[in-house]
């Protein structure tokens, strides 16, 4: 079993998709969402965590270094193997990222490197991109710049509204982010148990 911490600030649809996917997996591949980290204690994602019995670490950002120190201390007892950002609206410092080498991932609603940063869906739509999609990537010191794990895309239809595009992107996110998280947790678990990760490799 491997342990996941999810960081989120908003609606939490990806949080819910990941938590439900991991909960429904049976047997030896059962991994746990050990906690939610949020900077928004009133965000809908918090009730999604509480409703699933998942502990919530709420962080008050007076300064980023104080907040990250608090997160690190609060995370310690949960011993997470992987940190998945899912709409976490704070940029993590380089020193925080370095504490969890290759163990922090993020989902972004565009085909990076296009439209890094905020409002990626709106920008993809407004700029008329014929191909739109999602990127799941490792977090490095930059803004949405880390190594890509997976991208999935679709072609814009002539009559797509921005709301249609948003829905299609969220559908892709909810399908693929849980699968990628699950695969990475499997790999972590396999390494810990001394099984070559390649033996446990499966397409996501
Ligand atoms: C998603 O579109 C994700 O790609 C972006 O933030 C959004 C979070 O949505 N990083 P939700 O809170 O999971 O519904």
Search tags:
globular, disordered C terminus, binds 5-O-phosphono-beta-D-ribofuranosylamine, 204 residues
Describe it for me?
This protein has 204 residues and is an alpha/beta fold. It has a single domain (3-118, 134-153, 173-192), classed as Rossmann fold (3-Layer(aba) Sandwich), CATH 3.40.50.170. It is built from six helices and seven strands, in the order βαβαβαβαβαββα. The protein has helices at residues 13-24, 44-51, 64-75, 94-99, 120-126, 162-192, and strands spanning 3-7, 32-38, 56-58, 82-85, 104-108, 131-138, 148-155. Strands 3-2-1-4-5-6-7 form a seven-stranded mixed beta sheet, with helices on both faces. α1 crosses α6 (162-192) and α5 (120-126) crosses α6. It is globular, with a radius of gyration of 17 Å. Residues 200-204 have low confidence and may be disordered. The chain binds 5-O-phosphono-beta-D-ribofuranosylamine (GRF). 5-O-phosphono-beta-D-ribofuranosylamine binds at residues 8, 10-15, 86-87, 107-109, 173. Residues 8, 10-15, 86-87, 107-109, 173 line the site of 5-O-phosphono-beta-D-ribofuranosylamine.
What's the short story on this structure?
The protein is an alpha/beta fold. It has helices at 13-24, 44-51, 64-75, 94-99, 120-126, 162-192, and strands at residues 3-7, 32-38, 56-58, 82-85, 104-108, 131-138, 148-155.
